[in-house]
Design a protein that fits this description.
single chain, 65 residues, mainly alpha
C-alpha cells in the first residue's frame, strides 16, 4: 500500500505526539510514590512505546516504497 506524502506527514505528527505522551508517562512515573499507580503508568508508557515503534516502522516501510 502506497501512502501519500500528506498521510506520511500525518503519521509522523502522530508519532511525535505519542513520544510526548511517553515522556509525560516517564516523568509521572519518576514523581509517583504509590507502587500501584506507578505500575499502571509504567504499563501505559510501555503500550505507547509499542505504538511509537509500530508507527515508525510503518512510516519507514512506506517511505521506502
Amino acid at each position: 500500500m502506497q501512502l501519500s506524502t500528506r498521510e506520511l506527514l500525518y503519521l509522523e505528527d502522530c508519532s511525535k505526539m505519542m513520544e510526548a505522551i511517553q515522556k509525560t508517562c516517564q516523568h509521572a512515573m519518576s514523581e509517583c510514590t504509590d507502587p500501584q499507580v506507578k505500575s499502571l503508568i509504567q504499563k501505559m508508557g510501555s503500550e505507547h512505546n509499542q505504538l511509537i515503534q509500530s508507527s515508525a516502522s510503518f512510516v519507514s516501510r512506506s517511505s521506502m516504497q
